[in-house]
Write a structure and sequence with these properties.
By secondary structure, the chain is mainly beta. It has 2 domains: about 200 residues, Jelly Rolls, CATH 2.60.120.10; about 150 residues, Sandwich (Jelly Rolls). Helices cover about 5% and strands about 30% of the residues. The radius of gyration is 25 Å and the shape is globular.
C-alpha cells in the first residue's frame, strides 16, 4: 500500500494537489466575489496580499495569495533583537556571507543528535551546514531541530530568509499556520514558505532535519522519458484549509522573526492566526513519503540517484538540470538488475550530499564505528569521493542477485546542492557528534583486488617481465 501506516491519526482536513491555485474559507462567504480587494471585505475583514515571488514573475512561476483576516499582519510593535541569553534565541545564527562556515573536503558523519528537553522550536534550531547568504537570497541552510517542549502559548515564528523544508525523524509536529493546520509525522515532510507565520506544539520530544531554501521555491522535478506519472505524484500533496483564532481583546502575542540569519521579536495585541479565508498559489503543504512511486533499472546497472527526487529547487545560473537544492529519498524498493553491483557506486560528484536517516537501515552504509544511524547524518561535499564502505562492497560484489526488496521499514533521504557546503562550529565541534574515524572504518580498509594479467603488452622498449617479478609488482606500465 503506497501510504505510511502512521501510529497517530491526522485530525485535519486538506486540499489535495501540488501547486496551482487553491482557495479555502472557514466561514462561508468570507471570500469576496470577483474582486480581490473590494472597498469593504465580507464580515468586516481586512484583505492582505502575501507575495512569494515578484509581482511580474511568469504566470507559471508566480506565487501569491490573498488573505482575508481580522487584523492585518502589519499591526504589531517594533521588532527588537532577541538577546542571545534568551531561552528563545537562535543557538547558531546564520553566518554572514562568506564567513564562519568551515568549508572542508573531508567526508563527515555524525552520530544521532541529542534531544534537548528544555528547548522549544526556536531555540532547538541548530544550523549544521550551509552556503550562501539569506540577505542576497542565495544558497541554503541545513538545520537539526530537537525540541523537548512546545512553543510557548501565544507565540508565533516565521523566517523571512527562506522556505523551511521540515523532515521529522521523531515525534509528531502539530503545526498551526496562518493558512491552516497540519499534523506532520515522521515519514512525512512539510514545506512552510518564506514569511508564513506558524506555531508548533507536540506531546513528546521531537527531532528532525530542516533545509532552508534562500532562493526560489521547490517544485516537482520534470519526469522526462518517465512520462506523466511517477516519483512524487502531484495529487498526494496536501494543503491545509482555513482555520482561525478569535483573540483580539485584552491579549498579547509575541512574534518571532528570523531575518538575515538573526532573530527578532515584536509584541502585538491580536493573534497572528486570524485568517478567515484565503485564495492563491502561495501556501504551506505536506507530503507522505510512503506515497512516493520509485522507478529503477529492470535490466542492468545502478541508475543515478536523481530518480529518487521528491522536490527540486533549480539553480538556473548553474545550468540546465542543476539544483541549488534537491530533496531525494531512498524508500523501500525492489532491486532486480542482473550482473550489477547494486549499491551506489563509488563516485565524486559536482553536487554536495547531506544525508539523514529517518528510520531503519540504509543499504549502502551499514558498517563503520557508530554507523549511519537514525537521527544521524553524513556530508559528502563537492568532489569528495565516497561510496559503500568496505563491508558493503565485499558483500555486494559477491552476493547472489535474485530479486531483492531493500529498505523495508527504512527511509533515508538526501539534501543535495550544487553549492560547496560549509559546516558551522556547532556542527563541527560543539555538538560533539562527528565520527572522527569515519574514513578509517569505511574506506581505508578497502582491499586491493587487482590481479595483473599473465600476458601484458610492453612499451617504451621495456623488456617483458614475469607476473611474479618484484619490480613488476611495484611499477605501473603503459599498456597498449
Amino acid at each position: 500500500m503506497p501510504v505510511t501506516p502512521f501510529s497517530s491519526t491526522d485530525p485535519y482536513q486538506y486540499v489535495n494537489g501540488f501547486g496551482g491555485y487553491k482557495e479555502s474559507e472557514a466561514v462561508e462567504g468570507a471570500l469576496p466575489l470577483a474582486a480581490n480587494s473590494p472597498q469593504k471585505c465580507p464580515y468586516g475583514l481586512y484583505n492582505e496580499k502575501l507575495s512569494g515571488t515578484a509581482f511580474t514573475a511568469p504566470r507559471n512561476e508566480n506565487q501569491q495569495s490573498w488573505l482575508y483576516r481580522i487584523l492585518p499582519s502589519s499591526s504589531h510593535q517594533n521588532f527588537q533583537p532577541v538577546p542571545t541569553s534568551s531561552s528563545q534565541s537562535l543557538t547558531s545564527p546564520t553566518p554572514e556571507f562568506g564567513k564562519h562556515f568551515n568549508a572542508i573536503p573531508n567526508q563527515l558523519r555524525w552520530d544521532p543528535f541529542d534531544f534537548d528537553k528544555d528547548s522549544s522550536w526556536i531555540h532547538s534550531l541548530h544550523l549544521v551546514a550551509g552556503a550562501g547568504d539569506p540577505q542576497m537570497k542565495q544558497g541554503i541552510g541545513i538545520y537539526i531541530y530537537a525540541a523537548g517542549t512546545s512553543m510557548p502559548d501565544k507565540t508565533a515564528f516565521y523566517s523571512a530568509d527562506g522556505d523551511f523544508l521540515i523532515v521529522p525523524q521523531h515525534g509528531d509536529l502539530n503545526i498551526r499556520t496562518e493558512l491552516g493546520r497540519m499534523l506532520v509525522r515522521p515519514n512525512e515532510i512539510a514545506v512552510i514558505p518564506r514569511g508564513i507565520r506558524y506555531h508548533i506544539t507536540h506531546t513528546e520530544p521531537v527531532r528532525g532535519y530542516i533545509l532552508e531554501l534562500y532562493q526560489g521555491h521547490f517544485q516537482l522535478p520534470e519526469l522526462g522519458p518517465i512520462g506523466s506519472n511517477g516519483l512524487a505524484n502531484a495529487r498526494d500533496f496536501q494543503t491545509p484549509v482555513a482555520d482561525f483564532i478569535e483573540d483580539f481583546e485584552d491579549t498579547e502575542w509575541t512574534l518571532y522573526a528570523k531575518f538575515g540569519g538573526n532573530l527578532f521579536q515584536a509584541k502585538q495585541n491580536h493573534s497572528p492566526f486570524d485568517v478567515v479565508a484565503w485564495h492563491g498559489t502561495y501556501y504551506p503543504y505536506k507530503y507522505d513519503l510512503g506515497r512516493f512511486n520509485p522507478v529503477g533499472s529492470i535490466s542492468y546497472d545502478h541508475p543515478d540517484p536523481s530518480i529518487f527526487t521528491v522536490l527540486s529547487a533549480p539553480s538556473h545560473p548553474h545550468g540546465a538540470g542543476t539544483a541549488v537544492a534537491d530533496f531525494v529519498i531512498f524508500p523501500p524498493r525492489w532491486l532486480v538488475a542482473e550482473n550489477t553491483f547494486r549499491p551506489p557506486w563509488y563516485h565524486r560528484n559536482t553536487m554536495s550530499e547531506f544525508m539523514g536517516l529517518i528510520g531503519g537501515t540504509y543499504d549502502a552504509k551499514g558498517a563503520g564505528k557508530g554507523g549511519f544511524q537514525p537521527a544521524g547524518a553524513s556530508l559528502h561535499n563537492t568532489m569528495s569521493g565516497h561510496g559503500p564502505d568496505m563491508q558493503t562492497f565485499e558483500k555486494a560484489s559477491t552476493a547472489d542477485l535474485p530479486p531483492q526488496k531493500v529498505g523495508e521499514g527504512s527511509m533515508a533521504f538526501m539534501f543535495e546542492s550544487c553549492l560547496i557546503l560549509g559546516v558551522t562550529e556547532w556542527g563541527l565541534k560543539t555538538c560533539a557528534k562527528v565520527q572522527q574515524s569515519y574514513n578509517e572504518h569505511s574506506w581505508e580498509p578497502l582491499k586491493v583486488h587487482w590481479k595483473r594479467p599473465e600476458r601484458m603488452g610492453v612499451s617504451n622498449g621495456e623488456k617483458k617481465r614475469g607476473v611474479g617479478d618484484a619490480k613488476d609488482q611495484s611499477s605501473v606500465h603503459d599498456l597498449k
